[in-house]
């Protein structure tokens, strides 16, 4: 009865033309209030704040790197790991069916330094995605109390592991994931990268992962530090054997099982060139979007239409909106601008690209809808040169 009375009052108080700007203002206010408190408090792990991490107290760290056709990057990544100041670590380098000589590079470096443990995979068993299987085998070979899952093209600063371990133990964490410094060349690539991360921050809310009573969780493939206790409790990578979004879902399972996790920004700790070009990012995103929408192309497309409306309506309304309604649209733009400014500062992305955010959202929507169309046309996804049918991927949900 009360809600009916409220809606009846609103129907009389607001002219019909005011509903769209009012709805827009309510939605962006809700997003702002849900996002901003934890976003401004997101920890930034700086060198001077990190205590010395003692392996005697914290235990051995096993860094598990899964590489497929990464000959161009793997030597640099392994060399940066060998320079780590943390005393007790091993590097499990997994060659996942590479055809470009990646395994040879790993073997040569392992022959020179015993901390590198080479693992070679010749065949992929049924029921597994290649990367997930490689990380699982690497974890099974690892001897550490902690497992650091990392991509094969990440460059680590010398004290990265030591700082992460000190932080994890200072805050009694079971899972620590780190946002790296992203290297992007080209204006369009920077714009698409910025929008991708902006949506990740707004809707996945990794900055709120530390809150026990929320569904927010975090996971980044470049740096997922997990205690062995937590990893084994969630069922290892077997529990996510067919998840293309393995890094994010690993964090989701850890959070669901009640373990403590946190997302931090440490751009002077690790860095990565996520994609070398705009075109490569469009292609690379073919595998990412559909799992979040339960492999439903219709659901994904509907979500993209709603998000396009959410992003473009304030800009259009502020320019052509009638009368005082324009103030509501300007209010929405202020909230959006504050959120974008914070995210751009954290990740060192171009702040002025906020002015063309609708264009960025259009590129983002195109990449997502394209991935859905291709998946439906092919009947599945291609990842690491292996085809997986939608039927078997849905079983992985």
TrEMBL record:
CDD domains: Glyco_tranf_GTA_type. It is found in: Cell membrane. Keywords: Carotenoid biosynthesis, Cell membrane, Glycosyltransferase, Membrane, Transferase, Transmembrane, Transmembrane helix. Pathway: Carotenoid biosynthesis; staphyloxanthin biosynthesis; staphyloxanthin from farnesyl diphosphate: step 4/5. The keyword Repeat does not apply. It comes from the Bacteria. It holds the Pfam family Glycos_transf_2. The keyword Lyase does not apply. InterPro entries: Glyco_trans_2-like (IPR001173), Nucleotide-diphossugar_trans (IPR029044). Residues 62-234 form the Glycosyltransferase 2-like domain. The chain crosses the membrane at residues 182-203, 292-311, 323-342, 354-376. Its main location: membrane. Belongs to the glycosyltransferase 2 family. CrtQ subfamily. Catalyzes the glycosylation of 4,4'-diaponeurosporenoate, i.e. the esterification of glucose at the C1'' position with the carboxyl group of 4,4'-diaponeurosporenic acid, to form glycosyl-4,4'-diaponeurosporenoate. This is a step in the biosynthesis of staphyloxanthin, an orange pigment present in most staphylococci strains. This is 4,4'-diaponeurosporenoate glycosyltransferase. It comes from Alicyclobacillus mali (ex Roth et al. 2021).
